[in-house]
Amino acid sequence: MSEVHQGRRRLLAALAVGGGLVAIGGGSALVMNARGRSGYEDAINATWRHSDSTDLPLSSARRELVRYATLAANSHNTQPWQFRLSDHSVLVLPDPGRRLPAVDPDDHHVFASLGCAVENMVQAARAFGLRAVPSYDPGAPGIRVDLEAAPPERTDLFDAIPHRQSTRSRYDGRSVPPEHLRLLEAAGNGDGVRMLLFTERQQREDILSYLVAGNSAQLDDVAFVEELESWIRFSYGEALSTRDGLFSKSSGSPVLPGWIGRLIFSRVFTKGAENRKYESQLRSSAGVAVFVSDKNEPAYWAEAGRCCQRFALQATALQLRHAFINQPVEVPAVRGQFATYLGIGGRRPDLVMRFGYGPELPRSLRRPVEHVILQA
Ligand SMILES: Cc1cc2nc3c(=O)[nH]c(=O)nc-3n(C[C@H](O)[C@H](O)[C@H](O)COP(=O)(O)O)c2cc1C
């Protein structure tokens, strides 16, 4: 049975429990859903697109680079970034109001997300006839990206930016040809960050045991579950009004009025069901990439983000899907055991992604550029 069907079956069981209440909400919810869907699709089409032109004056190009940056992967889709524009540079800053204290107490994922955004900016800059040069000064907040004139060049990774998505579904089990694995390897390594690639069946089973251990610990943690639920957007209306967070449809779950979603969340989102879902997702994947940085410091976390975003763009260019499975690195006790399995000594495994072939899922939204650019 497909995961979407399993999810529906669990949902129906939960709806049966919540019976009367759901019946009252049902009819009007259907009408609102149809209206919401077309508004959502319009917003998605306006978000996930290339610029009309790459031949722009610097001030317009800079704004477009920020727009491309916001299309990057980021933890829980909180979009934890702000951008301060100067003549020839962009400062990419963390947004303290969009931290995730339960899953990310040390802001590791905030800096990894900033790194993802910076990588999109670096790839896009070339198309606009600019070279983007990021630098990190531990004494200053955020990442500074200097912009210099350069010959325009449109690359496969740039073309892939509006097509990339985190695809949290079952893949089709096909393996990736060696020449494409080599391209993924070239994309995923960086300055002080190494990517480890696992494609053997037994390796996927080994990694699955850390994924299940991490996921089980997280679902036993009330603060983690509450934080996650607060970022889920159950309906089109919720997703459209915030334009952030985890839209249920983007995870293959049904769209529901928010109050019904929250009512049944704890019945549907159980440890057993989630672990079974991850088992089938990982077993259907072609492989797993683990990003490991040399030092456990914000500059390296950001570099790991850059590497995983580049990897994701390269995968997208090769018609491969990807999804993060970070549970093994998010729970400190499991992270230590996972580091031992990886044989990386005292270094920190930063991020974990699975990849493979499969259909797309509905996309998630982003806040408009005007909301993330800080006025001087
Ligand atoms: C640092 C970081 C950690 C993430 N962790 C997870 C994760 O553990 N599980 C997951 O499904 N997605 C994870 N994601 C993916 C985000 O949820 C996803 O990028 C976001 O919802 C936006 O969706 P998009 O990538 O399709 O644009 C992570 C992304 C980043 C950058």
Automatic annotation (TrEMBL):
Protein name: Tat pathway signal protein
